[in-house]
Amino acid sequence: MPACSQNVLDMDSRNPPHMQAESKLPDDESKAFTALELRNLAMLGEDRCAQTVKAGSLQPLVALLNEGSEKAKACAALVLKHLAVDSEDRCAQIADAGALRPLVQLLKEARGVEGMEWVADAPKNLALKSEQRSAQIVKEGAIQPLVALMQKGTAQTKHRAALALSTLAAFNEGRSVQVADAGAVPLLISLLEEGSDRNKSELAMALTLLAANSEEVSAQIIRAGALQALAKLLKEGSADAKQSAAYTVFQLGKYEALKSHVAKAGVLDQMVTLLRERSGETRTVQETAFSVLQKLWIDDKKLLTLLYMVGALPMQQSPLIKLFSSLPFFMQFRSTQI
Hints:
The chain is mainly alpha-helical. The chain contains 22 helices and no strands. Helix 18 (about 265-275) packs across helix 19. The longest helix has 15 residues, at about 30-40. It is elongated, with a radius of gyration of 24 Å.
């Protein structure tokens, strides 16, 4: 075992390990092992991440992305993923070190190597809160290989690739259209119908990000069957999943041309059902459902008719009018017959 591969947890925090000269690392296996040690260090917290970068690890990691074996490249991507978490400064340093192009190239070369979900996470973390880095990652060609990972990867890889795509597209109409045109929407909706409640909640939010600034993409999402999947999530999902689904409904319904499609898909019925529940566990979800109804359909007489037809609105008392009054929500809710 090379000298640099000692347990990083036992090392003096003032002298964190970093990528050694190639003469001390005779093969890619040793380099991959050292990269994993750096990952262990990065997972210990903000101070250790800062020390790792200060020790000069970024350039060797980028070199490993460019020249290492598949395994070594994936390990380097894993380290960069952790170093990029919750630090705009480190994200900028990683990008300035030249990591974005080889990370995207690694996505393009993906052939099912173990740990490829790490590679999908790295561009997602680097793109967060940065329009410039998101644009650069897309310019390097990240969208199509991420869509390919959604088609052929493991369940975890598919999920993380979907989140990476939604992060790249977030609040940018042009990139949202690019992601949708690459075929991501039906794949994302298919994933929405599988997996854990946590995954479903995250995927519903991914749809929200895609729909946020593009009526064209929102229409694609509706045509691909998202509303049926969202209605099921509102009915059967966890509280977090229901909340995420309600946010997505709002994004899809805010466009006048699409509002009628949303109203007919069963999602309103499910939100009305949520309003009728008395469980304290669903209060936050109820507030979200109420907010969606209020913002999108407060003046819609057809909605009032629909609510009456599904049994949420006794015609004589018109409790929906009380719901939409200026009182705080909890008082509105308590004063209604819904």
